[in-house]
Design a protein that fits this description.
Elements: E1 4-10, H1 14-25, E2 33-39, H2 46-53, E3 58-61, H3 68-75, E4 83-87, E5 91-93, H4 97-106, E6 113-121, E7 127-129, E8 133-134, E9 140-141, E10 156-160, H5 161-166, H6 179-189, E11 193-204, E12 215-216, E13 219-222, H7 224-241, H8 244-267, H9 271-286, H10 288-301, H11 306-310, H12 318-326, E14 330-331
Parallel strand pairs: 1-2, 1-4, 2-3, 6-11, 13-14
Antiparallel strand pairs: 4-10, 5-11, 6-7, 6-10, 8-9, 12-13
Helix pairs in contact: 1-2, 7-9, 7-10, 8-9
């Protein structure tokens, strides 16, 4: 199939999945497409919604939650198309997005490329981002209008299947969060181009599919669960993707930044958050052999230097930047 496989991973996402699928099947396009939904053992009405209202969906009902990264990797085994569109269930397609995406990708048959659609807010269509940034410590800068674009947000990524496989797919050890940073980092190291596509607009309820990550009352709302996975995956990304000589100064500074955060959370009475940092480091110690194996694979294939990669990164700390704008995060129960 020369068209596109739209891949959606769900976990208790029925609130947003209906509008998402309806927006896809409402597209008027001459391109062939299929929709694959991989469900991570949802306990809400996700499965009945698909089976009763969207019978054309290729549904994979998994018997356990294997995480976002692994689920996407499994889903492409059902794909019959040569192009993949990874979508979050809390997104909606607008206008003729499928035509715009497919037509643009068709111009790059022989080039290594990842397409990055523009994202706007779910209800108001206010601009959110068209590509996101990170600092030299691997922490994301999730705000619109950034000057240095680094990675494609996992909520909407367009890539040829052969390129996704060539990049080693998503790192399944990530479970969720920052797997998109890792994919884009690997792509840059291996000489891929990340192309912004502003004509393809996708609406996104940022954080809706995992119930956190948005801003409320001028504060960032997140969860201990999200913080744990974010910190552990950031450390793994750094260990895999930087050259040794840069690890020697980046890792100590990351540790100092984390230590400063831990002190703040101790004094603000957030012991669960403090524990999440300890668990993140412990996890990386346990997974060190796996990380070094991935690192060897990446470093042996890279053709772009850290110096060139770091030109696309912010030199300061994104966490300090975020702290100055929205203050200390508010943590939910999860």
């Amino acid at each position: 199939m020369n068209g596109i496989s739209i891949i959606i991973v769900t976990y208790n996402s029925s609130k947003y999945l209906g509008p998402c699928l309806y927006s896809i099947y409402s597209q008027k396009t001459s391109w062939d497409y299929e929709v694959i939904v991989f469900d991570n053992n949802s306990t809400d009405r996700t499965l009945s919604l698909i089976r009763n209202q969207f019978k054309d969906v290729i549904l994979v009902a998994n018997d356990k939650n294997i995480g976002f990264a692994a689920a996407n990797n499994e889903a492409i085994k059902r794909s019959s198309a040569d192009t993949l569109l990874f979508l979050n269930p809390d997104t909606k397609l607008t206008g003729s997005v499928l035509d715009a995406l497919c037509e643009e990708m068709s111009r790059y048959d022989n080039e290594k490329i990842i397409m990055v659609p523009m994202q706007c807010s779910y209800d108001t269509e206010t601009f959110l981002n068209c590509g996101l940034g990170i600092d030299v410590f691997g922490f994301p800068i999730n705000e619109g209008g950034i000057e240095k674009f680094f990675y494609a947000d996992g909520a909407a990524i367009l890539i040829k299947k052969k390129d996704f496989l060539d990049l080693g797919m998503f790192d399944e050890a990530h479970f969720l969060i920052h797997e998109d940073i890792d994919l884009s980092w690997k792509a840059r190291l291996l000489g891929y181009e990340l192309k912004l596509l502003r004509e393809a607009k996708i609406l996104h309820k940022s954080g809706g599919s995992i119930g956190c990550g948005d801003r409320a009352d001028s504060n960032l709302r997140t969860s201990v669960f999200r913080r744990y996975h974010g910190e552990k995956n950031t450390i793994r990304n750094i260990l895999k993707n930087y050259s040794w000589h840069n690890l020697l100064w980046v890792l100590p500074l990351v540790f100092i930044i984390n230590l400063a955060e831990i002190i703040v959370f101790i004094f603000t009475g957030k012991p669960k958050v403090v524990l999440s940092y300890a668990k993140a480091y412990y996890w990386n110690i346990l997974k060190l052999r796996s990380t070094l194996k991935k690192r060897k694979w990446i470093q042996s294939r890279r053709i772009i230097s850290d110096r060139d990669i770091m030109k696309c990164m912010y030199k300061g700390s994104a966490k300090l930047r975020l702290l100055s704008k929205v203050g200390i995060p508010k943590f939910g129960d999860n």
